[in-house]
Amino acid sequence: MIGFLIALISGALMSVQGVFNTQVTKTSSIWTASIFVQLTALLVCLGAWVFMDRSSLLDVWKVEPKYMLLGGAIGAFITYTVIKGMDLLGPARAVMLIVVSQLIVAYAIELLGWFGVEKQPWEWRKGIGMVLAIIGIVVFKW
């Protein structure tokens, strides 16, 4: 149950953040806003680390395979694409497409066992759920 609640909070925070970041770009630029977003995220993470964790910062270099360390770089492009998507489509349409895209890619990762994730068998109900989500986008757009 706690995982469900955390995921709901995550989705809500992502939507609010996207709107905030899009507004910031109106007085700066998309890359300036992205720098600010990533810098403030770094400061929050450093603060949380100081007060809650204190594990070695160098432990991340033990991760294998090394390409797993690209999460931050991917995060920069996520920030850019969320801002641009919300600017061009509006928050509701952009988030709907983002969520369905996340769902499809996440399920493909599970099905194919990519990136060290345990491979899962195809389930029709999940496929039908994704089709219904796509239909929902079409209905919402009209």
Provide structural commentary:
By secondary structure, this protein is an all-alpha fold. The chain has one domain. It is about 75% helix and about 0% strand. The protein has 5 helices and no strands. The protein has helices at about 1-25, 30-50, 70-90, 90-110, 125-140. The radius of gyration is 18 Å and the shape is globular. The mean pLDDT is about 90.
Please provide a brief summary of the model.
The protein has 142 residues and is mainly α. It has helices spanning 2-25, 30-52, 71-89, 91-112, 124-141.
Structural topology:
Layout: H1 2-25, H2 30-52, H3 71-89, H4 91-112, H5 124-141
Helix pairs in contact: 1-2, 1-3, 2-3, 3-4, 4-5
- How many H/I helices? 5
User: What fraction of residues sit in β-strands?
Assistant: under 5%
Please report the distance between the alpha carbons of the first and last residues.
Answer: 35 Å
Content-based structural category? mainly alpha
Question: What are the segments in which pLDDT stays under 50 over at least 5 consecutive residues?
Answer: none
How many domains in all? 1
The topology string of helices and strands comes to HHHHH
- Helicity level, as a percent range? over 70%
Globally, the shape reads: globular
User: Rg, please?
Assistant: 18 Å
State the major sheet.
Answer: none
Number of strands: 0
Taking all residues together, what is the mean pLDDT? 92
Task: Based on the model shown, name its key terms.
142 residues, mainly alpha
